[in-house]
Amino acid sequence: LAAWYPHLTAAHHEIADPRWPNCLNPMAAGIRLADAVHTVSPSYAEEILRPSDPPRFFGGEGLEGDLQAARAQGRLFGILNGTDYDGAPVLRALDLPELVGLLKETVLGWTGGSPTLATAHFLAYSRLSDWGALTQRPPLVLTAVTRAVEQKLFLMKAPVSAGPPALHRVLEALQAVGGRFILLGTGEPEYERFLIDTSARFSNFVFLNGYSDAAARALYASGDLFIMPSSYEPCGISQMLAMRHGQPCVVHRVGGLKDTVTDTVNGFAFGGESVTEQADNFVSACARAAHCRLAGGGAWEKIKQQAAAARFSWNNAAVAYMEVLYRIPG
Predict the structure, then answer these.
(1) Are 242 and 249 in contact (CB under 8 A)?
(2) What distance separates the 2 farthest-apart alpha carbons in the chain?
(3) 1-82+313-330 and 96-310 share one CATH topology?
(4) Which DSSP string do the residues of 78-114 spell out, in sequence order?
(5) The pTM of the whole model exceeds 0.90
(6) Domain ranges across the chain
(7) Which end of the chain is more exposed for a tag (fewer CB within 10 A), N or C?
(8) pLDDT tens-digit readout, 19-72
(9) Does the structure show a pLDDT above 70 at 88?
(10) What is the DSSP letter of 62?
């Protein structure tokens, strides 16, 4: 440190990594020396006090001791992020031909920038063309807008107790009732490959391998059920955007997802003590949500209304920043 920043002085124990004491850890130093440490949800602030046990549980990642000290000293706070409500109009849900048309145009736009046709785009356009021939909307449309990375999709790829990936079990059950699943995202090659292979195998699944703000907004507004089984989630914004449009979510009960979605109240949530149990419970939560939606009646409408009525405002977050982090009275 002295070689790089000769004007800085710090005791070795204040900047050293807790696991490799001969190494500098800027995050650890920040936690130890800051007046306040802030996470973007209350539940995540609790989770990082515990040691990680990946892939079952993600906690403090070796810094839980420093975070526990910050909590004991009254310096660790969890304040939930927010989203816009008044300034962001809720979009109209698109009917099936409109949604399919928009998504097909999106895929065509992506293909124009490459001299070759990517397998993911070919499969997506072909599936969407088939869906465009449907005479009525499917009884259940699942959506996801996500990064295709381990944090977000590990539990979709994880095998259930009976063997196949959890996503395949969800799609098999969805196929039995004529439902569809549309996932928009891009990310790590391993998870993109998994989604491409899945889309080739299941005719009721479309993987849109890219990102488009117009497509994302359409999926938030037009789906029946938003899927977000993150292995860990400091806060999460996608569930808030889907709920803002009255689309209930299926979420893993971690971090900010735990703080925003309550099972059978404004959405559906699951947990589990092992990866297999989490994967099984993810499939079960999707099945419970699908049954509630297809059964019709007041239960589903009440959950939709509660999702749309939930408010996670930036105004509340700003007040908490001032009063909790900066000690400015309201």
Answers:
(1) yes
(2) 72
(3) yes
(4) E----B-STTSPPPPPPPHHHHHHHHHHHHHHHHTT-
(5) yes
(6) 1-82+313-330, 96-310
(7) C
(8) 898 898 999 999 999 999 999 999 999 999 999 999 999 999 999 999 999 999
(9) no
(10) T
